[in-house]
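queue> pop job 88
queue> type: inverse folding (structure -> sequence)
queue> payload:
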């Protein structure tokens, strides 16, 4: 497999810095690092972004995530390794990623459950992480970025 081009965020030199600033803001939002890693990894799995799945798994391991959690994030509803808080974040991430799959893309139930575990600042961080991950997935899948090519 060969990529079609470098990532557009790299090609357009002014693009990466603002994206990195958003990621810094997300990381300062008060959400546990492993929860953000789970959100990133699950969205990347849904979108079929091999580069982001690979990078996300490596990043999650560095953050101390267990092999059991990494191996079962795609089946988080059935796996015993996730807290209720993480499940709420994963449910929100899936709903916000699969917007066209249902008429009420992010239902009140999904949102309200997440809001029982996260305050407004934390929800903002999760929603921004969902948006940034979806953006990177689309950039990388479109240009066929290669898993493992970034180290």
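queue> result:
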């Amino acid at each position: 497999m060969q990529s079609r081009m470098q990532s557009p965020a790299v090609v357009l030199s002014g693009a990466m810095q603002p994206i990195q600033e958003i990621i810094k803001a997300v990381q300062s939002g008060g959400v546990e690092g492993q929860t953000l890693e789970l959100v990133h990894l699950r969205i990347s799995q849904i979108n079929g972004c091999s580069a982001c799945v690979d990078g996300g798994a490596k990043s999650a391991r560095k953050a101390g995530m267990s092999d059991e959690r990494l191996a079962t994030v795609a089946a988080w509803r059935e796996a015993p390794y996730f807290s209720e808080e993480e499940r709420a974040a994963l449910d929100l991430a899936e709903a916000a990623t699969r917007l066209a799959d249902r008429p009420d893309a992010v239902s009140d139930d999904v949102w309200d459950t997440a809001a029982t575990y996260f305050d407004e600042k934390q929800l903002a961080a999760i929603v921004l992480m969902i948006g940034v991950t979806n953006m990177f997935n689309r950039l990388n899948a479109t240009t066929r970025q290669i898993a493992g090519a970034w180290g």
